[in-house]
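Course assignment 3, question 2. Fill in each field.
Student: A.L.
Task: Predict the tertiary structure for the chain below.
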Amino acid sequence: MTRLVRTVLPALSAALLLLPRAALAHPGHGEAAGLAHGFLHPLGGADHVLAMVAVGLLAALRGGRALWALPAAFLALMAAGAGLGMAGIALPFAETGISLSIVAFGLAAGFGLGLPVAVLAALVGAFAVFHGDAHGAEMPESASGLVYGLGFLAGTALLHAAGLGLGLIAVRASRTRSAPVLGGTVAASGLAILALGL
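Answer field:
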């Protein structure tokens, strides 16, 4: 196993979990407007960062069509969820759904790589709606929905790319040994964030 998998990833996960609770990127945590704020919104909370990096990680570990299908499913359904949030439609248990997405993506990366790509895309897409709803609800009335939306889609794509890079490094090291460690670390981080939210 590479040094990255053994030391850097657990240290990064611990650092993200130690972020102040206010750093979670959910509705009610400050004003967001324009392209820059849309771009920074997914980067501003440990919950969104972990989930979106985990999508890229899962895609890289699964390989093949998953490399584009999983990020595309997340982006498309996150945009749909953002439409709900912008329209003032709050999804029930959205915060819980966001935290559970981290757990689900981690478990899938660690132990579900044999699932069909369509099933993984459906899993990723279903949870993406919760993330999108949180992004959309954060947009103030004075902002352009299109510009703000393009910003958070770009920020999300950047996080997916980071996960893809991490996953490709893990595949080179040895997918069978590193996938359970990486996936388990992500899932444990999601459980910790879920516990902090209760």
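Instructor remarks: Residues 35-197 form one domain. Confidence is low (pLDDT under 50) at residues 11-32.
Grade: pending
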